[in-house]
């Protein structure tokens, strides 16, 4: 698959410096640029590679000042990092759009309804009452339960399991082995010390433009709905418990866990291994560093948190600086006591 500099510039709304007919078919890092590759320069520390790269095309910010002669063709864009994300999305979509048809080894209920240009891979099972929108791609060995709805232009990767009654919006991506709609962790203690399972009869809604990472689980609600709002991006190996609501454009990194009935606000950012307790509310714009433990509601928006239990990020590192010195401080205190 080859793109000319002119095609890329038109797609990215950029300006060309050099040969508009230069072509590239692969995307590479600028330090590994070879003929036929398109690279990008977003971090100033990689600037020296711009003057030595053999790549055919390089994306750079308009504000970048060229200090030496450049042999490659440049495309000037507003934000090189954002532009390469758009370029990779284009490249990936072109690869995926080639897939079409339905494998004879897929099992599709006659009571399911599939839209135009839907691709269904081998070994996939689609149950009765399922509705799948136009141009959606379903890879092999996917399970889609009764009465599931999936919107247009979605990508469902191999091994995904979508339980009955769940709703997936438009332009969603669900990566391999993710599970949508499994039972929430609900058990009632009994008099004899055992636990009785509480039936989980709710469902899950993923709104538009949601991405779910590999091996991530989103549990169905006990009664109502677990909701992942539009634009949310969830990494691999994340647990979203029953009755959780995650606000628009929130991003959650790998190995994080959100306990039941918690409401996460809009445009939050959680690093890896963040844990959030159940039945609390986290305000819009909250940012939590890796391994932060949020055990109580965060009421003030746009806070930066760290530690467990979570406190202000800067206060945490001030406290940690003291904590590291505790052995030395104790020794000094013991010496003072002896005196």
Plain-language structure description:
The mean pLDDT is 95. The protein has 2 domains: 3-97, Udp-n-acetylmuramoylalanyl-d-glutamate--2,6- Diaminopimelate Ligase, Chain: A, domain 1, CATH 3.40.1390.10; 107-316, UDP N-Acetylglucosamine Acyltransferase, domain 1, CATH 2.160.10. It is an alpha/beta fold and 339 residues long. The strands form 6 sheets. It has an 11-stranded mixed beta sheet, with helices on one face. It has a 10-stranded parallel beta sheet with strand order 8-11-14-17-20-25-28-31-34-37, with no helix packed on it. A 9-stranded parallel beta sheet has the order 9-12-15-18-23-26-29-32-35, with no helix packed on it. Strand 21 (187-189) and strand 22 form a beta hairpin. The protein is flat. The protein has 5 helices and 39 strands. Helices cover 16% and strands 29% of the residues.
List the helices and strands and how they pair.
Elements: E1 3-4, H1 5-12, E2 15-17, E3 23-24, E4 26-27, E5 37-41, H2 47-50, E6 57-61, E7 73-77, H3 80-97, E8 107-108, E9 113-114, E10 119-120, E11 125-126, E12 131-132, E13 137-138, E14 143-144, E15 149-150, E16 155-156, E17 161-162, E18 167-168, E19 173-174, E20 179-182, E21 187-189, E22 195-197, E23 203-206, E24 211-212, E25 217-219, E26 225-228, E27 233-234, E28 239-240, E29 245-246, E30 251-252, E31 257-258, E32 263-264, E33 269-270, E34 275-276, E35 281-282, E36 287-288, E37 293-294, E38 304-306, E39 311-312, H4 313-324, H5 326-338
Parallel strand pairs: 4-5, 5-6, 6-7, 8-11, 9-12, 10-13, 11-14, 12-15, 13-16, 14-17, 15-18, 16-19, 17-20, 18-23, 19-24, 20-25, 23-26, 24-27, 25-28, 26-29, 27-30, 28-31, 29-32, 30-33, 31-34, 32-35, 33-36, 34-37, 36-38
Antiparallel strand pairs: 1-3, 2-7, 21-22, 38-39
């Amino acid at each position: 698959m080859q793109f000319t500099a002119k095609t890329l510039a038109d797609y990215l709304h950029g300006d060309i410096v050099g040969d508009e007919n230069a072509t590239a078919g692969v995307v590479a890092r600028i330090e590994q640029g070879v003929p036929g590759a398109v690279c990008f320069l977003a971090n100033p520390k990689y600037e020296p590679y711009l003057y030595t790269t053999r790549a055919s095309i390089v994306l750079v910010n308009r504000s970048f000042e060229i200090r030496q002669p450049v042999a490659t063709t440049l495309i000037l864009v507003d934000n090189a990092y954002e532009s390469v994300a758009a370029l990779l999305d284009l490249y990936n979509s072109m690869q995926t759009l080639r897939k079409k048809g339905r494998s004879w080894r897929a099992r599709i209920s006659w009571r399911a309804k599939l839209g135009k240009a839907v691709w269904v891979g081998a070994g996939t099972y689609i149950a009765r009452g399922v509705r799948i929108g136009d141009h959606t791609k379903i890879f092999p060995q996917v399970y889609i339960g009764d009465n599931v709805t999936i919107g247009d232009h979605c990508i469902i990767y191999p091994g995904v399991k979508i339980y009955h009654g769940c709703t997936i919006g438009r332009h969603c991506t669900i990566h391999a082995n993710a599970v949508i709609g499994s039972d929430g962790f609900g058990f009632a203690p009994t008099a004899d010390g055992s636990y009785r399972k509480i039936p989980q009869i709710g469902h899950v809604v993923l709104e538009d433009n949601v991405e779910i990472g590999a091996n991530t689980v989103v549990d169905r609600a006990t009664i109502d709905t677990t909701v992942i709002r539009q634009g949310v991006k969830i990494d691999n190996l994340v647990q979203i418990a029953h009755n959780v609501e995650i606000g628009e454009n929130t991003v959650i990194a790998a190995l994080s866990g959100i306990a039941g009935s918690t409401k996460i606000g809009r445009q939050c950012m959680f690093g890896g291994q963040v844990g959030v307790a159940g039945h609390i509310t986290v305000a819009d714009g909250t940012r939590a560093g890796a391994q932060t433990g949020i055990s109580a509601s965060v009421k003030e928006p746009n806070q930066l948190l760290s530690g467990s239990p979570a406190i202000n990020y800067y206060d945490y590192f001030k406290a940690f600086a003291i904590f590291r010195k505790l052995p030395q401080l104790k020794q000094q205190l013991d010496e003072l006591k002896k005196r």
